[in-house]
Amino acid sequence: MPTTHLRYFLDARTATPHFPGIGRYVRSLAAALPAHLAPHERLTLLTPPISPGDATWSTPGADAVTVDASPFRLAQQWRIPRLLAQARRTMPGDSLLYHSAYYLMPYWPGIRTVLTVYDLIAMLHPQTVSRRAALFFRFTHRLAVAAADQVIAISAATRRDLLTHFRVAPERVTAIPLAPAPHFRPQSQTAIAAARARFDLPPAYIFYFGINKPHKNLVRLIDAYARLGASAPPLVIGGAWDPRYPEPRHRAAPLGDRVRFLGLLTDADLLPLLSGCTLFVFPSLYEGYGLPVAEAMACGAAVVCGNASSLPEVAGDAALLFDPADVTAIAEALHTALDSPAQLADLRARSLARAATLTWSATARATLAVYRNVLA
After folding, report:
1. Backbone angles phi, psi at 82, to 5 degrees
2. Is residue 30 within 8 Å of 59, Cβ to Cβ?
3. What rounded mean pLDDT belongs to the chain?
4. pLDDT greater than 80 at residue 225
5. Over the chain, what HEC string results?
6. Domain 6-179+359-375 falls in which CATH fold?
7. With CB atoms counted within 10 Å of each terminal CB, which end of the chain scores lower, N or C?
8. pLDDT greater than 90 at residue 184
């Protein structure tokens, strides 16, 4: 009996600078999937038009179709279903699958559908968005979940949240963890020294990387750091800055240059800063996955992080965990790690061992298993 040919459409329209995190997910998944396709399977990427200043990209082993309708445009509601309908003219509908990497998607795609959900922060931490945005988030997520035959959650924590707040059968939601990109690895001492020189950093420093939104919990981190005393290494904060939330800078002002804000960092700077830090700290109250923790571990950093939402499942037994809502607990975790060179060395070794278990190859295999089960 001949094997039925299968074709998977991965919607990669979020691979733009507007979606830094989701774009990294879809690019990494698209790059990893082709190596695991069977001979009767074909992958087609739905890619955005290339804008001036954007980097073009292609994936060996996958076709690409440019779609001139962003996730924010109503036109996607008919342009993508029309494209998928063209495929149905040459292949049976039950051999085609559409995977949306974003909840703003065509809600009647016309073929079997998989959806990736990252987090429910707009619902669980509504202070991060306007009331109107929170209502829109809930409404469009309901549409997206209803349109999907299967939902991929990027962590067990996100899966639990989804089952709690939406009417969706548990068997329709699969947790598939993310992974650091392959170029996240320990950097050379030369690269580390050059990065320190660029930012005028001493050999020892505590590092945080992420945005400054309230759920990232920077105010408590700075309060905890202040308790360590003047002999502690400086606290270095890197990442995008949202001007709506100036509180971390205000709280850090009395500490002078003990707390330093580097702003947005490219990977060329981020990787050596992760590799060279004395300690990486991530006090977030809520994360869909917590990729910075995995990336820090892949670079060999010793990690202390919050025990909330997905972070314990990302860190495994490789990090020192604390209650992110308790300033005293954060300060004690920082002091415990910094006070013991042997513990720092042990945490670095555990980080590398943990990161080795998180690969995009494993994520791609698990994602393909979802595709095949849906079509089966």
Report:
1. -65, -40
2. yes
3. 95
4. yes
5. CCCCCEEEEEECCCCCCCCHHHHHHHHHHHHHCHHHCCCCEEEEEEECCCCCCCCCCCCCCCEEEECCCCCCCCCHHHHHHHHHHHHHCCCCHHHEEEEECCCCCCCCCCCEEEEEECCCHHHHCHHHCCHHHHHHHHHHHHHHHHHCCEEEECCHHHHHHHHHHCCCCHHHEEECCCCCCCCCCCCCHHHHHHHHHHHCCCCCCEEEECCCCHHHCHHHHHHHHHCCCCCCCCEEEECCCCCCCCHHHHHHHHHHHHEEEEECCCHHHHHHHHHHCCEEEECCCCCCCCHHHHHHHHCCCCEEEECCCCHHHHHCCCCEEECCCCHHHHHHHHHHHHCCHHHHHHHHHHHHHHHCCCCHHHHHHHHHHHHHHHHC
6. Rossmann fold (3.40.50)
7. N
8. yes
pLDDT of 1: 43
| pLDDT band of 53, cuts 50, 70, 90 | low
Boundaries of CATH 3.40.50.2000 in the chain?
6-179+359-375, 189-355
The third-level CATH classification (topology) of the domain covering 189-355 is Rossmann fold (3.40.50)
Q: 289 pLDDT exceeds 60?
A: yes
Q: Which pTM does this prediction carry? A: 0.93
Amino acid at 42: R
